[in-house]
From TrEMBL:
The gene is ggt. It comes from Rufibacter hautae. Belongs to the gamma-glutamyltransferase family. One of its GO terms (molecular function) is leukotriene C4 gamma-glutamyl transferase activity. The lineage of its organism: Bacteria, Pseudomonadati, Bacteroidota, Cytophagia, Cytophagales. Keywords: Acyltransferase, Glutathione biosynthesis, Hydrolase, Transferase, Zymogen. Pathway: Sulfur metabolism; glutathione metabolism. This is Glutathione hydrolase proenzyme.
Amino acid sequence: MVVTAHPLASVVGADILRRGGNAIDAAVAVQFALAVVYPDAGNIGGGGFLVLRQHDGTLNTLDYREKAPSAAHRDMYLNGQGEVIENLSYKGHLAVGVPGTVDGMVQAHATYGRLPWAQLVQPAVLLADRGFPLTKKEAKKLNEQRKDFIRYNSQSPDFILKDRWRPGDTLHLKDLARTLERIRDQGRAGFYEGQTADLIVAEMKRGTGIITKEDLAAYRAVWRKPVTGQVGDYRVISMPPPSSGGIALIQLLTIAQDYPLQDWGWNTVKSAHLMIEAERRVYADRAKHFGDADFYEVPVKGLLDTTYIKSRMQGYSPKKATSSKEVSAGVPPLPEGPNTTHYAIVDPEGNAVSVTTTLNSSFGSKVFVGGAGFLLNNEMDDFSIKPGYPNSYGLVGEEANAIAPSKRMLSSMTPTILEKDGKLFMVIGAMGGSTIITTVYQIIQNVTRYGFTMQGAVSAGRFHHQWKPNWVLSEWGALGFGTGAGLWLKGHKIVPKYGGIGRAAGILVLPNGQLEGGADPRGDDAAAGF
Ligand code: GLY
């Protein structure tokens, strides 16, 4: 089964499985297909994280997160007075980190793939070359972005060929098709060297970008040991730094374990209050302690220490909200030695892959590589560009996540796999910036504590707290009038979030071994399988 943000990408992945490909083969094909049919977040100009659990229980994770260019420096988004220059880290050429996706896919395939590389890239080539029909949601988004696409590009991208896209219009992406052909035929070199690299560097020069040929040549994805935690009957397997997601998720699930959420009921005042108060404390830790562990000593073991995690709830009152001003990061036991789209795949052998991949915000920096037809990320905004200054998700950070050359920016992406009794139980993850962690958290709780189906758990309403700002974001109706009023009486400020919180993709292994997909109704998401 394959669950992705776009029906065509799900079909591409399921077809690869049918032809004898394994979960990694399908993941590679889906990644490239999403770069065509779901350009908001599917990408070759961005990055991501992949969590793998093979059918024999062997684990691995792949970090293909973007890196700061070598000419990047701590104060690159500040003016002479030390003030943040608005939007510089968020839109345009200077917002772009060195892309990691193509090297990530090459490495994933070289290590675990079964089918030939070209066969996995070819569906994306065909979709880009022959064109594909726009869904209603995609047509609307392209129309909304038109102004920015014109503003940030001197060479007109295919996305503005029509003044106004309508559902069912066919979008052809000819330049992207040629780039994908180079990747298909030359692998890594088809992106990080030669014509594509030349086009990326030329695009940088047309704007104020700083990515060089050397930066591209030096980019390498990294295999990392997953973070794991036993929470009740479930073993949680997720992404280590530079993602904050895995550790934060384990912290949230561990805290909730001490409270009878299932007796309190789903999204009641009692259970929502507990979850919000836990989120407040976990995100305070995130702001202080999390960054790229290759550059900053993230106290991973300390942050995952059960006694430490439980100590974070000191000061928690079931009666009233704690003010975020009274909550700061904890001091985890120190240190051990030197030390946004999601897709879920399970193949017929039981190998499972959980991938979250992104350009950061929708359509990234809005910059297309002229002549190469793909969008570049705006991942630099995920760094802490000034201590305490909120990024586009309102997240704040400190030294741990300061900009440095070749450093990876902190992420909230939380591709996760759950085991129960040593067997594969769930593959889950989400898009949604800072809300990814709490989205994955609530979905896991929905299934493991409240008995929801996979689809029910993904569809159910969600809420979110991230320490700062001091409010609870809530989807319309997620908390209901009674719960909203009850939380307000405890001192929580509830802010409605129109358009949804996070978008998730999940697969649950049912007791009889069948797979149940959860595709998010907030988007065009779809499950495909056989
Ligand atoms: N760009 C969103 C994240 O990585 O958290």
